[in-house]
Amino acid sequence: MSVVDNFQRLGFSDPRAREADRLSWEAEQALKSNDMVKARELYGRAAEIEEAIALNAYDEPIRVRSILAVNAATLWYKADEWDRVQRLVCPLLSEPDQFTDDARAELQDLLDQVIRR
Predict the structure, then answer these.
(1) Which residues contact 59 (CB under 8 A, 6 or more apart)?
(2) How many CA atoms does the CB half-sphere of 97 hold within 13 Å?
(3) Quick one: 79 exposed, middle or buried, by C-beta within 10 A (0-12, 13-18, 19+)?
(4) Which helix (H) or strand (E) is 64 found in, with range?
(5) pLDDT band at residue 16, thresholds of 50, 70 and 90?
(6) How many domains does the chain have?
(7) Is residue 4 part of a domain?
(8) How far is the C-alpha of 16 from the C-alpha of 81, rounded, in Å?
(9) Residues 113 and 77: beta-carbon distance below 8 Å
(10) Which domain holds residue 26?
(11) Residue 20 burial (C-beta neighbours within 10 Å; 0-12, 13-18, 19+)
């Protein structure tokens, strides 16, 4: 089941999410083919979409916002865009009541990994 299918089960539907899901799948295929340049580019394109959705999801349930935020940050991480991870995650962590405890922990972990690089 795709991320988009899980979102739809939660009552969230944004057509851009299907495109991000497709790009992420293509990036995974590029990784399997050892095409790191293409994989990072595709992850970056998917991250741009996920970030745009995440930053405009304040009317969505906290679980959906949390999933979107973690997905976006993770995709930036996979794209090796460390500065984009930081620019996304730092402001999100300053709004702790907007995300689940698990999402905050995952976002903090990603940020810690970026800082250690």
Answers:
(1) none
(2) 0
(3) buried
(4) helix 62-78
(5) confident
(6) 1
(7) no
(8) 21
(9) yes
(10) 14-116
(11) buried
**Chain segment 46-87, per-residue pLDDT in tens:** 999 999 999 888 888 888 889 999 999 999 999 999 999 999
Is 92 buried (19+), middle (13-18) or exposed (0-12) by CB count in 10 A? buried
- What single letter denotes the amino acid at residue 113? Q
Q: Which residue has the tokens 């995709």?
A: 75
Residue 7 included in any domain: no
Q: Are 46 and 23 in contact (CB under 8 A)?
A: yes
Q: How many helices (H) and strands (E) does the chain have?
A: 6, 0
Domain CATH for 32: 1.25.40
In a domain, 92, yes or no: yes
d(CA 24, CA 40): 10
Any domain includes 61: yes
